[in-house]
Amino acid sequence: MTGKAKPKKHTAKEIAAKVDAATTNRGGGKAGMADRTGQEKGGHAKLECPFCKITAPDLKSMQIHHEARHPKQPFDESKLINLHAGHVAETSKPRPGVRGSFKK
């Protein structure tokens, strides 16, 4: 004999976590394309390689890319293109906190 079939009760925390996971942009697919390429101010990509136009989120990642892909050219931080420099922050759009929650 197996155990009794009891329906599982979902907690409010579990339901809120599922809603958060389903509605928050995690950076994948078409929804995260602008975020990955740095087209918006809050995007992940901050720096762009001047040689191959690939993007990276920080200086260390760009330095690793440069050493791997362009070993013959010297690494110069001043030649990197800052994608966030030309954008103006929008004040009407709320910025998500930790894991996309809007808690204060």
TrEMBL record:
Any GO CC annotation of this UniProt entry: nucleus
The superkingdom of the source organism is Eukaryota
Q: Tell me, in one coarse class, where this protein mainly resides.
A: cytoplasm
| Sequence ranges of Basic residues compositional bias | 1-11
Keywords on record: Cytoplasm, Nucleus
The answer to whether keyword Nucleus applies is yes
In the UniProt record, does the keyword Nucleus occur?
yes
Name the InterPro entries on file. Answer: MBS1/2-like
**Which segments does the entry list as coiled coil?**
none
Q: Where in the cell is it found?
A: Cytoplasm; Nucleus
- State what protein this is by name: Protein METHYLENE BLUE SENSITIVITY 1
Originating species = Elaeis guineensis var. tenera (Oil palm)
